[in-house]
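Hi R.,

Here are the chain sequences for the assembly we discussed:
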Amino acid sequence: MCAARTAPEDLTISKAFDTQREQFSVASEKAVLVSVALPDRPWANEADPCDEIRGLVESAGATVVGQLTQKRQDVQLATYIGSGKVGELRELVEGAGADVVIFDNDLHPGQARNLEQALGIKVLDRSEVILDIFAGRARTAESKLQVELAQLEYSLPRLKQMWSHLSRQKGGGIGLRGPGETQLESDRRLVQHRIRDLKHKLNEVTARKEREVKSRSEEHTVSLVGYTNAGKSHLMNTLTKADVLVKNQLFSTLDTRTRQWHIRDWGRVLLSDTVGFIRDLPHHLVASFKATLSEARHAKLLLHVVDASSPQAEDHIRAVGAVLKELNCDQKPTILVLNKIDKLTDRALLTVLEAHHPRAVAVSGLTGEGIDRLEEAVMEALAAGFAEAEIVTDAGNGRVLAFLNAHAEVYRQEFRDEANEVVVRCHLPKHLLHHIAGPTVKVRFVEREKPAAAQAERESA
Ligand SMILES: Nc1nc2c(ncn2[C@@H]2O[C@H](COP(=O)(O)OP(=O)(O)OP(=O)(O)O)[C@@H](O)[C@H]2O)c(=O)[nH]1
Ligand SMILES: [Mg+2]
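And here is the predicted structure of the full complex:
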């Protein structure tokens, strides 16, 4: 339920939110990175443990001025890293004149607060940086709502830390006493109120999107999913001759784009490009982006794009698998697309990936290599849910004839006057067959026939 909002509350919350955005934003700041390996969260790249967080921080607009790494058996409750390392970090921060420390790990609000007290500058974690990038890139009303919701849900348990920041900046003490405590309570209520309001708005967007997506349920819908920067948007442009944004940065795409893809000998497919995933994607973001991800959730087929030239390709495949599971998409027909093969200096890496994923298709969105094999694999996968059929029914069975004309690809319709029946030769989704079942309907499965239009196109080529 969403209570009616009043204008002044709106004003207050947006101010509080702006302050919080400012606190969490790292654009044009000098950052020191910290990456901690734990037994259940080892480094993806031992040779350069800060590789990914550096990419994220630079994508957010900050400059990296130093880094600190440590392997630990467990987390130090108060400050995540031990007191010796905190001292080392303080020296690094002072020496480099840093404005912010960014952890590649997720911190509890109390840990961030304690670290800020010890270091004297702001301390952010990986999720906050990802949220900051999303906030900076959100362009449509929908993605702005989604990002704001994710940020507020993330910030709610951290409001106290935010207020201690403000009180320190204003020359006050660190602890929250008296009026600060009251303000904290009222902010908490405002944030909760705004969260309810945003959820309500987003539920409406999600419901509308689901209706739109379902109205295309008879179409061949295919979604590109994959790790951020894997080349999804580039592949979309190559396949559909579209012109969507392609950039060598993390999270270029935040909104879904759908374009027509004409596959030779098959026909039209609707291809969607969507937001990229990353390991440990903040849970709130996945939940908030449900509307944007609805194309992927309802697609008949997923193309899981991976940057095969990355030494972390297997980690990326696993991380994407985890997000797909969270979206209940892990049982969907999926083709693994090993992209950027033009970039591979050592083709042995591709051989290893292909050995692990024998059904994967290797392509280059850049040079077009392998695209014909990808088209074949897509046709094969889409055809698995379809049947070629010859359907015989009474000539007067208008319901079945209308249904077939609306939902199937009808090649021929032949009336047999002597038997007063009609034979329809068509291609249709198997799950629709039960809609036409009845005592006067006979279905016979036959060999696939090329669609007339595709056949003509092939002959003229
Ligand atoms: N060499 C090479 N580079 C590629 C290929 N495909 C994409 N790229 C480059 O990889 C970078 C990322 O490409 P995008 O298509 O924006 O990646 P994305 O998966 O859509 O990324 P997000 O939207 O951020 O999730 C760009 O610099 C592309 O030019 C490829 O096949 N080969
Ligand atoms: Mg993209």
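Confidence is low (pLDDT under 50) at residues 1-11, 170-178. The two ends are 58 Å apart (CA to CA).

Let me know if anything looks off.

Best,
T.
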